[in-house]
Amino acid sequence: MLHVRMKHVCIGVSVVCLSVLSWSEAGAAAMSSYSPVVIKEDFAATMARMKAAKAEIMQRQMDLLNERYDLSDRPSDVMMSAGRRAVQEGVRVKLPQGVTWKQLGNMTPDEIRDKNLWPKGFLPLPHPNHAEGGMVFPKFHIDEIKKQEGRDLTRFDLDFDLPDHFLPEYPPAIYLTTRPDLGDVSQGKVVTIMNYYELFNGILNPKQIEGLRLLVTPFPQQQFNMTEDRRSELPHRGVTCFDCHVNGHSNGATHLVGDIRPQEFRHRLDIPPLRGVNIQRLFGSQRALKSIEDFTEFEQRAAYFDGDPVIATKKGVNVLERGSQVHFMAEFQALLDFPPAPKLNLYGRLDPEKADKSELRGEELFFGKAQCSVCHPAPYYTDNLMHNLKAERFFKPQDVNGRWASADGPIKTFPLRGIKDSPPYLHDGRLLTLEDTVEFFNLIQGLKLSEQEKKDLVNFMRAL
Questions:
Q1: C or N: which end of the chain has fewer Cβ atoms within 10 Å?
Q2: 414 domain-assigned
């Protein structure tokens, strides 16, 4: 207990102190970069213990979400690309009592921090059980995969936390760079090992079909495997790339990044779309991967197993062959296009003949006063770089359900093309709507936008 108390004293003072403790010889309670390989508790006891704790864990997370956000279902009249889900509207982050957005916008970061006025919904969002982590899937995806394949992605220890209406439409459309004439080639189906061939034979070449087969083939993963430290009730074949990146897009599933230690510093991961990866040049949560081939190979070697190659070996890592399998998978992913944006011209800018006045005002703000285009230039609205927002200027370091909220460091600039299809927002999904996102950056950048300017920016981004 002495060591645990020391850790919490040090954590608010110095990351260096944490690093020292990580390598200390303080006994069984000492932190380690490695997960235990030899499990001392039998599987039945582990499952019973974790099932018993599940209700309390999920209630704690839902209490946090309700404290932070307005979680009501308030759809706008704007639909996502496939027309299966409406875009949610309105600011959902709750303000501290007695303060308005305008008042916050007129304060300095120091004032907001010292008065403890940073909205809790702008703090890092923890995993449903941050101390445990791992892949967690929305129930609608669990149900569909169980129906198609008989493979059950249910975890016995926890459930997904965000309401369905804040997630991408399901199933998402699939657009191909090679066949734009076909529109959505998904035929309204979730692509799996059961139907990929009938859907894509005659559209893809043999290499691409084989790449797609591998993307929908289950392989062992940290929580879904055959070992006694899995989090599925029965021994499991594993997960597929498309269990998170469903139809080459996203279903809102979450995880923790594999490349940060200790556990409380690991970021919750909001699964990004694979649409438009052909124009992206940085991959992985720390952007150490420079091609989609690197990312594809890394995912199954390391990211599937929390970045722990020791555990990967135990659980059955699938080592892909770079010259063919990785290449085939990457070639298919590079075909995944952004959704159509009929109001944009060849240069990714609004066509004045098609856009309305609010959208045009929003575009002017985006490329002017709001400074959005510094990181998100047309035509794809990304600069393929990383930027440090330094959000920690606005709040004091604190524990949030096991996630230590402090400096996030540099974050990748994600493309904004098709952004209305990809809620929630920011790298960890802490921003539920585009309105939340505008409020966040209005404070981060000190923009002092008016209410009308904020609305115009949202309308412009919905047109991208």
A1: N
A2: no
- What 3-state class would DSSP assign to 43? helix
43 torsion bin: left (phi>0), alpha (psi -120 to 50), beta (else)? alpha
Burial of 286 per CB tally in 10 Å (0-12, 13-18, 19+): middle
Query: From the centroid of its chain, how far is CA 322?
Result: 26
Burial 42-56 (b: 16+ CB within 10 A, else e): eeeebbeebeeeeee
Domain boundaries, position 168: 67-340
pLDDT tens-digit profile, the chain (464 residues): 333 333 333 333 333 333 323 323 334 457 788 889 999 999 999 999 999 999 999 999 999 999 999 999 999 999 999 999 999 999 999 999 999 999 999 999 999 999 999 999 999 999 999 999 999 999 999 999 999 999 999 999 999 999 999 999 999 999 999 999 999 999 999 999 999 999 999 999 999 999 999 999 999 999 999 999 999 999 999 999 999 999 999 999 999 998 899 999 999 999 999 999 999 999 876 677 899 999 999 888 888 999 899 999 999 999 999 999 999 999 999 999 999 999 999 999 999 999 999 999 999 999 999 999 999 999 999 999 999 999 999 999 999 999 999 999 999 999 999 999 999 999 999 999 999 999 999 999 999 999 999 999 999 999 99
In a domain, 21, yes or no: no
Cis peptide before 171 (omega within 30 of 0): yes
Residue 374's closest CA among 387, 360, 356, 358?
387
Tokens of 441: 């950056």
Residue 57 lies in a domain: no
| Residue 289 near residue 438 (C-beta atoms within 8 A) | no
Which residues does 448 contact at the CB level (< 8 Å), separation at least 6? Answer: 105, 106, 442
CA distance 146 to 135: 16
* Sign of CA pseudo-dihedral 172, 178, 182, 187: negative
Longest CA span, the chain: 70
Which of 92, 59, 427, 462 has the alpha carbon at shortest distance from 250? 427
Question: CA-CA distance, 395 to 393, in Å (whole number)?
Answer: 6
Tally of domains within the chain: 1
* Full-model pTM: 0.93
Which of 429, 426, 422 lies closest to 441 in space, CA to CA?
426
Residue ranges of the alpha helices (H) in 81-221? Answer: 101-105, 109-114, 139-149, 196-200, 206-215
Write the CB contacts of 105 (distance below 8 Å, at least 6 apart in sequence). Answer: 442, 443, 446, 447, 448, 449
How would you class 382 by CB atoms within 10 Å of its CB: exposed for 0-12, middle for 13-18, buried for 19 or more? buried
